[in-house]
Amino acid sequence: FGATLARDEEQNLWSTPHDVTHTEADDDRVLYNMIVVRNQLDKDSEEWQKLNYDIYTLRQTRKEVRSRWKHILEDLGFQKEADSLLSVTKLSIISDSQNMSKARDILLKLSEETNIFPTSWELSERYLFVVDRLIALDAADEFFKMASAVYPRRPGGDRGDEGPRPPQG
């Protein structure tokens, strides 16, 4: 049973064990490659510890971003739908190709004008699907307004992010 959990954790490229919602986007491949390289190293080596920290940090950052999105969705009245709106799988599709440009614009605007993403965050394809769903629900503009209010960008471009802390021990 422990081996199965460990394998599931290694295959999980998004945030939590048994999360089947991850996509095979560029940011997932980066994480996967980090895991592969780490697993080829001696666990006592400094390189292994650094990679393990980087993997942990990336996963924690992803959890925090998802939590921020979920918080806003719930505040907008999507308490029951928040998880399904955030669920993106390899089978997910854009609901309307006409919305793709608008979804990209809104996602970029969220990145530039709010603190919903950390400073070092590269825009994830996952959130393009989420914004597309919000457009289909006619809630994208309200989401942006709420994100601007709840996670305002600090003056001078500083978002004031504190990175996640690694586990002790």
From TrEMBL:
Pfam families associated with the record: MREG
InterPro entries registered for this protein in UniProt: Melanoregulin
Cellular component per GO, a single term: melanosome
Domain of life: Eukaryota
Gene Ontology BP terms: melanocyte differentiation; melanosome transport
PANTHER family linked: MELANOREGULIN
Protein name: MREG protein
Organism in which the protein naturally occurs: Panurus biarmicus (Bearded tit)
Taxonomic lineage from the root: Eukaryota, Metazoa, Chordata, Craniata, Vertebrata
